[in-house]
Protein backbone atom coordinates (compact mmCIF):
# COMPACT_ATOMS: atom_id res chain seq x y z
CA UNK A 1 0.00 0.00 0.00
CA UNK A 2 1.33 3.39 -1.04
CA UNK A 3 0.46 6.92 0.05
CA UNK A 4 -0.27 8.85 -3.15
CA UNK A 5 -0.71 12.63 -3.39
CA UNK A 6 -2.57 13.89 -6.46
CA UNK A 7 -2.93 17.54 -7.42
CA UNK A 8 -5.98 18.58 -9.41
CA UNK A 9 -7.78 15.52 -8.03
CA UNK A 10 -11.36 16.82 -8.17
CA UNK A 11 -12.03 16.21 -11.86
CA UNK A 12 -10.73 14.70 -15.09
CA UNK A 13 -7.49 12.75 -15.09
CA UNK A 14 -6.77 13.56 -11.44
CA UNK A 15 -10.06 12.21 -10.17
CA UNK A 16 -9.91 9.11 -12.38
CA UNK A 17 -6.41 8.40 -11.09
CA UNK A 18 -7.49 8.84 -7.48
CA UNK A 19 -10.37 6.43 -8.04
CA UNK A 20 -8.15 3.77 -9.60
CA UNK A 21 -5.47 3.93 -6.93
CA UNK A 22 -8.16 3.87 -4.23
CA UNK A 23 -9.60 0.68 -5.76
CA UNK A 24 -6.11 -0.81 -5.67
CA UNK A 25 -5.98 -0.23 -1.91
CA UNK A 26 -3.63 2.73 -1.72
CA UNK A 27 -4.06 5.70 0.63
CA UNK A 28 -4.92 8.85 -1.29
CA UNK A 29 -4.25 12.52 -0.61
CA UNK A 30 -6.52 14.52 -2.91
CA UNK A 31 -5.66 18.16 -3.56
CA UNK A 32 -7.70 20.93 -5.12
CA UNK A 33 -8.94 24.49 -4.81
CA UNK A 34 -12.67 23.92 -4.21
CA UNK A 35 -13.50 22.78 -0.69
CA UNK A 36 -16.99 21.51 -1.47
CA UNK A 37 -15.81 19.42 -4.43
CA UNK A 38 -12.90 18.04 -2.42
CA UNK A 39 -15.30 16.97 0.30
CA UNK A 40 -17.56 15.28 -2.25
CA UNK A 41 -14.68 13.34 -3.81
CA UNK A 42 -13.34 12.43 -0.38
CA UNK A 43 -16.72 11.02 0.63
CA UNK A 44 -16.94 9.06 -2.60
CA UNK A 45 -13.47 7.52 -2.26
CA UNK A 46 -13.62 6.90 1.47
CA UNK A 47 -15.77 3.83 0.90
CA UNK A 48 -12.75 2.31 -0.89
CA UNK A 49 -9.75 3.41 1.16
CA UNK A 50 -8.27 6.00 3.54
CA UNK A 51 -8.48 9.50 2.05
CA UNK A 52 -7.08 12.85 3.19
CA UNK A 53 -7.90 16.11 1.46
CA UNK A 54 -5.83 19.29 1.12
CA UNK A 55 -7.26 22.56 -0.15
CA UNK A 56 -4.70 24.80 -1.84
CA UNK A 57 -3.83 26.48 -5.11
CA UNK A 58 -0.62 25.08 -6.62
CA UNK A 59 0.16 28.56 -7.98
CA UNK A 60 0.59 29.93 -4.45
CA UNK A 61 3.81 28.74 -2.81
CA UNK A 62 2.72 29.74 0.70
CA UNK A 63 -0.52 27.77 0.34
CA UNK A 64 1.39 24.77 -0.98
CA UNK A 65 3.89 24.78 1.87
CA UNK A 66 1.26 25.35 4.57
CA UNK A 67 -1.04 22.64 3.22
CA UNK A 68 1.65 19.98 3.00
CA UNK A 69 3.04 20.96 6.42
CA UNK A 70 -0.46 20.43 7.85
CA UNK A 71 -0.47 16.72 6.97
CA UNK A 72 -0.71 14.56 10.09
CA UNK A 73 2.48 12.61 10.84
CA UNK A 74 0.97 9.35 9.60
CA UNK A 75 0.33 10.95 6.18
CA UNK A 76 3.64 12.76 5.70
CA UNK A 77 5.51 9.90 4.02
CA UNK A 78 4.24 10.45 0.48
CA UNK A 79 5.38 7.59 -1.76
CA UNK A 80 4.01 8.94 -5.03
CA UNK A 81 3.45 12.51 -6.16
CA UNK A 82 1.26 12.99 -9.23
CA UNK A 83 1.62 16.52 -10.58
CA UNK A 84 -1.64 16.61 -12.49
CA UNK A 85 -2.96 20.13 -11.78
CA UNK A 86 -2.73 22.37 -14.83
CA UNK A 87 -4.74 24.32 -17.33
CA UNK A 88 -5.10 25.71 -20.83
CA UNK A 89 -6.60 29.13 -21.47
CA UNK A 90 -7.44 30.63 -24.83
CA UNK A 91 -6.57 29.68 -28.39
CA UNK A 92 -5.34 32.87 -30.02
CA UNK A 93 -2.14 34.00 -31.76
CA UNK A 94 0.48 35.60 -29.54
CA UNK A 95 -0.35 39.05 -30.88
CA UNK A 96 -3.93 38.71 -29.61
CA UNK A 97 -3.32 36.58 -26.54
CA UNK A 98 -4.37 37.52 -23.03
CA UNK A 99 -1.46 38.02 -20.65
CA UNK A 100 -3.76 36.90 -17.83
CA UNK A 101 -4.21 33.61 -19.68
CA UNK A 102 -0.46 33.31 -20.12
CA UNK A 103 0.12 33.90 -16.42
CA UNK A 104 -2.47 31.26 -15.49
CA UNK A 105 -0.84 28.64 -17.71
CA UNK A 106 2.74 29.36 -16.69
CA UNK A 107 1.84 29.69 -13.00
CA UNK A 108 -0.24 26.51 -12.96
CA UNK A 109 1.54 24.21 -15.40
CA UNK A 110 5.13 25.16 -14.56
CA UNK A 111 5.51 27.03 -11.28
CA UNK A 112 2.78 25.03 -9.53
CA UNK A 113 4.46 21.77 -10.46
CA UNK A 114 7.76 23.13 -9.18
CA UNK A 115 6.27 24.41 -5.91
CA UNK A 116 4.65 21.08 -4.99
CA UNK A 117 7.68 19.07 -6.05
CA UNK A 118 10.13 21.28 -4.15
CA UNK A 119 8.06 20.84 -0.99
CA UNK A 120 7.89 17.04 -1.18
CA UNK A 121 11.23 16.07 -2.73
CA UNK A 122 13.32 16.65 0.45
CA UNK A 123 11.18 14.13 2.33
CA UNK A 124 11.56 11.59 -0.48
CA UNK A 125 15.32 12.11 -0.51
CA UNK A 126 15.49 11.51 3.24
CA UNK A 127 13.79 8.14 2.76
CA UNK A 128 15.72 7.32 -0.45
CA UNK A 129 12.51 6.38 -2.19
CA UNK A 130 9.61 7.90 -4.08
CA UNK A 131 8.03 8.33 -7.48
CA UNK A 132 7.07 11.57 -9.22
CA UNK A 133 4.63 11.51 -12.12
CA UNK A 134 4.40 14.71 -14.17
CA UNK A 135 1.52 15.19 -16.58
CA UNK A 136 2.78 16.92 -19.70
CA UNK A 137 1.04 16.85 -23.10
CA UNK A 138 1.66 15.95 -26.72
CA UNK A 139 1.63 19.75 -27.13
CA UNK A 140 5.20 19.54 -25.83
CA UNK A 141 6.17 17.45 -28.85
CA UNK A 142 4.92 19.80 -31.55
CA UNK A 143 4.08 23.49 -31.17
CA UNK A 144 0.84 24.51 -32.86
CA UNK A 145 -0.44 27.90 -33.95
CA UNK A 146 -2.55 29.81 -31.41
CA UNK A 147 -1.39 27.61 -28.55
CA UNK A 148 2.20 28.73 -28.26
CA UNK A 149 2.23 29.55 -24.54
CA UNK A 150 0.39 26.37 -23.60
CA UNK A 151 2.82 24.32 -25.71
CA UNK A 152 5.75 26.13 -24.10
CA UNK A 153 4.43 25.42 -20.60
CA UNK A 154 4.14 21.72 -21.36
CA UNK A 155 7.57 21.63 -23.01
CA UNK A 156 8.83 23.02 -19.72
CA UNK A 157 7.24 20.05 -17.93
CA UNK A 158 9.24 17.71 -20.20
CA UNK A 159 12.47 19.54 -19.40
CA UNK A 160 11.74 19.65 -15.67
CA UNK A 161 10.98 15.91 -15.67
CA UNK A 162 14.29 15.18 -17.36
CA UNK A 163 16.11 17.40 -14.88
CA UNK A 164 14.38 15.75 -11.94
CA UNK A 165 15.43 12.33 -13.20
CA UNK A 166 19.06 13.45 -13.53
CA UNK A 167 19.04 14.89 -10.00
CA UNK A 168 16.98 12.27 -8.18
CA UNK A 169 17.87 8.84 -9.58
CA UNK A 170 20.80 8.49 -7.16
CA UNK A 171 18.33 8.92 -4.29
CA UNK A 172 16.13 6.04 -5.42
CA UNK A 173 13.40 8.37 -6.70
CA UNK A 174 11.77 7.47 -10.00
CA UNK A 175 10.45 10.17 -12.36
CA UNK A 176 7.91 9.62 -15.12
CA UNK A 177 6.72 12.13 -17.70
CA UNK A 178 3.37 11.37 -19.36
CA UNK A 179 2.20 13.10 -22.54
CA UNK A 180 -1.53 12.58 -23.20
CA UNK A 181 -3.08 13.42 -26.55
CA UNK A 182 -6.72 14.45 -26.87
CA UNK A 183 -8.57 13.45 -23.69
CA UNK A 184 -12.29 14.07 -23.26
CA UNK A 185 -12.39 16.04 -20.01
CA UNK A 186 -13.23 19.64 -19.06
CA UNK A 187 -9.92 20.68 -20.64
CA UNK A 188 -11.47 22.36 -23.70
CA UNK A 189 -14.34 23.80 -21.69
CA UNK A 190 -11.80 25.61 -19.52
CA UNK A 191 -9.71 26.63 -22.52
CA UNK A 192 -12.76 28.17 -24.19
CA UNK A 193 -13.99 29.78 -20.97
CA UNK A 194 -17.20 27.79 -20.65
CA UNK A 195 -18.22 27.81 -24.33
CA UNK A 196 -19.76 24.34 -24.45
CA UNK A 197 -20.51 24.40 -28.17
CA UNK A 198 -16.93 25.25 -29.10
CA UNK A 199 -15.52 22.77 -26.62
CA UNK A 200 -17.68 19.98 -28.04
CA UNK A 201 -16.17 20.43 -31.50
CA UNK A 202 -12.76 19.40 -30.17
CA UNK A 203 -14.03 15.86 -29.51
CA UNK A 204 -16.45 15.52 -32.43
CA UNK A 205 -16.12 12.83 -35.09
CA UNK A 206 -13.76 10.44 -33.31
CA UNK A 207 -13.30 8.61 -30.00
CA UNK A 208 -11.05 10.65 -27.76
CA UNK A 209 -9.09 9.22 -24.88
CA UNK A 210 -10.89 8.99 -21.55
CA UNK A 211 -9.48 10.16 -18.23
CA UNK A 212 -9.50 6.50 -17.17
CA UNK A 213 -7.10 5.65 -20.01
CA UNK A 214 -4.50 8.01 -18.59
CA UNK A 215 -5.16 6.75 -15.07
CA UNK A 216 -4.42 3.21 -16.31
CA UNK A 217 -1.12 4.40 -17.78
CA UNK A 218 -0.15 6.18 -14.56
CA UNK A 219 -0.95 3.08 -12.52
CA UNK A 220 1.16 0.93 -14.86
CA UNK A 221 4.16 3.20 -14.27
CA UNK A 222 3.69 3.36 -10.50
CA UNK A 223 3.11 -0.38 -10.14
CA UNK A 224 6.10 -1.39 -12.26
CA UNK A 225 8.81 -3.30 -10.38
CA UNK A 226 11.12 -1.10 -8.35
CA UNK A 227 14.02 -1.67 -10.74
CA UNK A 228 11.91 -0.34 -13.66
CA UNK A 229 11.47 3.35 -14.48
CA UNK A 230 9.14 4.38 -17.28
CA UNK A 231 10.79 7.69 -18.09
CA UNK A 232 8.40 8.97 -20.77
CA UNK A 233 5.07 7.82 -22.16
CA UNK A 234 3.09 9.34 -25.04
CA UNK A 235 -0.55 8.32 -25.41
CA UNK A 236 -2.75 9.20 -28.39
CA UNK A 237 -6.31 8.20 -29.21
CA UNK A 238 -6.25 5.90 -32.24
CA UNK A 239 -7.62 8.70 -34.43
CA UNK A 240 -4.80 11.13 -33.60
CA UNK A 241 -1.57 10.79 -35.57
CA UNK A 242 0.32 13.77 -34.13
CA UNK A 243 -0.57 16.76 -31.93
CA UNK A 244 -2.15 18.77 -34.76
CA UNK A 245 -3.82 15.97 -36.75
CA UNK A 246 -6.99 14.11 -35.77
CA UNK A 247 -8.80 11.95 -38.36
CA UNK A 248 -12.52 12.51 -37.92
CA UNK A 249 -15.42 10.61 -39.43
CA UNK A 250 -17.61 12.59 -41.80
Please give a handful of descriptors for the protein shown.
9 strands, 250 residues, alpha/beta, 7-stranded parallel beta sheet, single chain, two-stranded antiparallel ribbon, Rossmann fold, globular
Plain-language structure description:
The protein has 250 residues and is α/β, with parallel strands linked by helices. It has a single domain, classed as NAD(P)-binding Rossmann-like Domain (Rossmann fold, 3-Layer(aba) Sandwich), CATH 3.40.50.720. The protein is 43% helix and 17% strand. It contains 8 helices and 9 strands. A 7-stranded parallel beta sheet has the order 3-2-1-4-5-6-7, sandwiched between helices. A two-stranded antiparallel sheet has the order 8-9. β5, α5 and β6 form a beta-alpha-beta unit. It is globular. The protein starts with a strand and ends with a strand. The mean pLDDT is 95. It holds the Pfam family adh_short. Belongs to the short-chain dehydrogenases/reductases (SDR) family.
Walk me through the topology.
Layout: E1 3-6, H1 12-23, E2 27-32, H2 35-45, E3 51-55, H3 61-69, E4 80-83, H4 99-127, E5 130-135, H5 148-168, E6 173-180, H6 187-191, H7 196-202, H8 211-223, E7 232-235, E8 240-242, E9 245-246
Parallel strand pairs: 1-2, 1-4, 2-3, 4-5, 5-6, 6-7
Antiparallel strand pairs: 8-9
Helix pairs in contact: 1-8, 3-4, 4-5
Determine the CATH superfamily: NAD(P)-binding Rossmann-like Domain
N- to C-terminal separation?
Answer: 47 Å
Supply the number of helical segments.
8
Instruction: Name the helicity range.
Output: 40-55%
CATH topology value:
Rossmann fold
What value does the average pLDDT take? 95
- SSE arrangement, N to C: EHEHEHEHEHEHHHEEE
User: What would you say the CATH architecture is?
Assistant: 3-Layer(aba) Sandwich
Radius of gyration: 17 Å
Shape: globular
What is the strand tally?
A: 9
Q: Largest sheet, described in full?
A: 7 strands, parallel
Count of distinct structural domains: 1
Uncertain segments: none
Q: What structural category characterises the helix and strand content?
A: alpha/beta
Amino acid sequence: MKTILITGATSGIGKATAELFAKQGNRIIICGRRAEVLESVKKELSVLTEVFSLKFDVRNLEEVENAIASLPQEWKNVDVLINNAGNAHGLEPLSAGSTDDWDSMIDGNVKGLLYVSKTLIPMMKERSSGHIINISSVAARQTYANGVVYCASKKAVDVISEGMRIELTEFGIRVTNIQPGAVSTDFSLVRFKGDQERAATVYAGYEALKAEDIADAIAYCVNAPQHVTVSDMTIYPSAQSEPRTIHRKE
